[in-house]
Amino acid sequence: ILNVEQSPQSLHVQEGDSTNFTCSFPSSNFYALHWYRWETAKSPEALFVMTLNGDEKKKGRISATLNTKEGYSYLYIKGSQPEDSATYLCAFTTNTNAGKSTFGDGTTLTVKP
Amino acid sequence: KAGVTQTPRYLIKTRGQQVTLSCSPISGHRSVSWYQQTPGQGLQFLFEYFSETQRNKGNFPGRFSGRQFSNSRSEMNVSTLELGDSALYLCASSRVTSGGDTQYFGPGTRLTVL
Fold first, then answer.
1. Measured between alpha carbons, how far is B84 from B78 in angstroms, rounded to an integer?
2. Residue A57 in contact with residue A44, Cβ under 8 Å?
């Protein structure tokens, strides 16, 4: 059974703060790591798909890095805004079972104005 | 481009009944995956279909089954419903595989089993 862990479980920050969270996954048989944002009453929205060790992706104020050798990915949000409040999920797939995504439990971010 | 659609959005059933949920992927997407989310749990993978074939399966009992049609639309069936099946069921589509491609999620079907 694959274990994908996300930390912290929840985070409260003030508007304008920068923040980051972690996704840990097994380092063997790596295929891809996905990040999603899930706002209340909406569908999960894909942020990044990362496949190569050392990958860095950026979308506006949000960026992510990937270390497949040690099995972790960081998601960074620069200058948090209230609209960034959401649960951020990561999902891991292996090269032996590329169509099966294993999700972490998510980090719930609350940004206070 | 229309997004992923799921029907119905809400469903109330009683124990022992069966239910069928439907998912229409984004046009051109051939992979459809199904997930279950229960209170306090993350998204749990149910199965993935590609070209009308189940390609991957999660750790769910045989009461959970699915199929995919030639137009890539997919259905999920749960037989002999139990109280613990109450959950949000999400489907997601991707071009080829959910592994390396971006997955696009539907709005979900909220199933309540009484």
1. 12
2. no
Rounded to whole angstroms, the Cα distance separating A69 from A28 reads 8
Q: Do B100 and A51 touch (CB under 8 A)?
A: yes
- Mean predicted confidence (pLDDT) in B74-95: 96
Q: What is the CA radius of gyration of chain B?
A: 13
CB of A34 less than 8 A from some CB of B: yes
Q: How far apart are CA A22 and CA B3, in angstroms?
A: 29
Residue with tokens 């990958």: A55
Cα B61 to Cα A108, B26, B78, B82, B85: the distances in Å are: 30, 28, 10, 12, 11
Determine, for residues A98 and B105 on separate chains, whether the beta-carbon distance falls below 8 Å. no
Task: Give the residue from B9, B12, B2, B3 showing the smallest Cα distance to B113.
Answer: B12
Contacts with A99 from chain B: Cβ below 8 Å:
31, 33, 48, 50, 55-56, 97-99
CB pairs under 8 A between A and B: 69
Question: pLDDT (tens digit, 9 = 90+) per residue, B19-55?
Answer: 999 999 999 999 999 999 998 788 999 999 999 999 8
